[in-house]
Amino acid sequence: MNLVYAMGIGFLLDCVLGDPHVLPHPVRWMGRLISFLENRLHGKRTRPESDAEQGRYVQERTCAMESEEKTAGQKRREILCGMVLVLAVLTVTGICVWTLRRLAYSLSVVGGILTDGVLFYYSVAPRSLYRESMAVYAALSQGSLQKARRALSMIVGRDTDCLGEEGVIRAAVETVAENTSDGVTAPLFYMALGGPVLCYLYKAVNTMDSMVGYHNDTYEYFGKAAAITDDVWNYVPSRMTAYVMLPVAAVLMKGKGMFGRLSCKLHPFFFIPKNKKTEYSDDSRDFNCVNFSNNSENISFKNAIFYPYTDIKRVLFVYRRDRRKHKSPNSAQTESVCAGMLGIRLAGDASYFGKVVHKPCIGDDLRPPLREDIKRANVLMYGTAVLSLALLMAGRMAVYL
């Protein structure tokens, strides 16, 4: 039961306090360790710590190596060095967390539970994801596209200078949807499965992928081991998250009963006027919305609609169709559910470090994205996080019975 208590403590701390920027952070220590090993395995060059400078750093290293033709031996060496990086970081992380927990529990059980709770608090990040994405929403609400681009650049790896308002909204929604798994439910899953040690091994894998798992001339081979390891570790959590998202989306869209009335009072932006029936053609496998009315008098507290262009059948249809439309086997799992629920199109072509990367689109372009969609994506994220926490805590408790 100790892990159940720790999961509750850690999640509650994050909801109340958010990510502690002023305190020492284990993930930052992981980043410094990865940078230290990278400089020795892949070239001695100081990696900037700020997210704002990260893109320029990768771009400089990429440009410096574009003219170099790598031999087969160099490629093998980079792949081997990348494997050494992964093994070294996982070993150091596992030993450190295991030693800390052993020391805490040797002093007292309560101290051990609190240590586990704080460790989990540092690893899960729904409040941080909400805060960073809502900074984009706040900038757009103020009419400052430039500020919105700067805020977006802190949470995405793509180039943001060329994005218009719709592009900024799509990118923010896409990031919230993808990181619902990476930053919230995956740490929950591994915490419930194997405690803080397994949870922090996952965080180490995720951090390595975010730092060296790029498809460019610099990291194509050196970062391959980190990228593949991240895909493997995220395979189950991403699908679990998508399955949990589906009933959460259904509840948010219909909003029936007490939950719907409460949500309508707390979050009036969820509930948009109800439209007339949505037609579905089995022959074309497509949905067509007809006769949508913006009459605000059509709002119903007992049957509030999350967005009038879609329903749960459409969400399921989009999820089944688009869940594999990504180079990563995992990212589109949650993005497709979010896109289907909102009735907007996500993903598509994007610019990374000055180069356009062609990617398939996820979802259907039933309407232009609105800045309120960033809020809706966050509500879906929090609903998924709470339901996942409840299910995983219940599963962990069942082990003790």
Largest sheet data: 2 strands, antiparallel
Strand content: under 5%
Query: On the 0-100 scale, what is the average pLDDT?
Result: 79
Largest sheet strand order: 1-2
Low-confidence stretches: 48-52, 62-67, 256-308
- Shape by Cα distribution: globular
Secondary-structure class: mainly alpha
Q: Please count the beta strands (DSSP E, at least 2 residues each).
A: 6
String of helices and strands: HHHHHHHHHHEEHHEEEEH
Q: Total helix count?
A: 13
Estimated helix fraction: 55-70%
Distance between the termini: 10 Å
As a whole number of angstroms, the C-alpha radius of gyration is: 22 Å
Description:
The strands form three sheets. Strands 1-2 form a two-stranded antiparallel ribbon. A two-stranded antiparallel sheet has the order 3-6. The protein is 66% helix and 4% strand. With 401 residues, the chain is mainly α.
What is the gist of this entry?
The protein contains 13 helices and six strands.
List keywords for this structure.
mainly alpha, globular, 401 residues, two-stranded antiparallel sheet
Which helices and strands occur, and which strands form pairs?
Blueprint: H1 2-17, H2 26-41, H3 51-65, H4 72-107, H5 109-123, H6 126-141, H7 145-153, H8 165-212, H9 224-254, H10 257-266, E1 278-281, E2 286-289, H11 312-322, H12 331-342, E3 346-347, E4 350-352, E5 355-357, E6 361-362, H13 372-400
Antiparallel strand pairs: 1-2, 3-6, 4-5
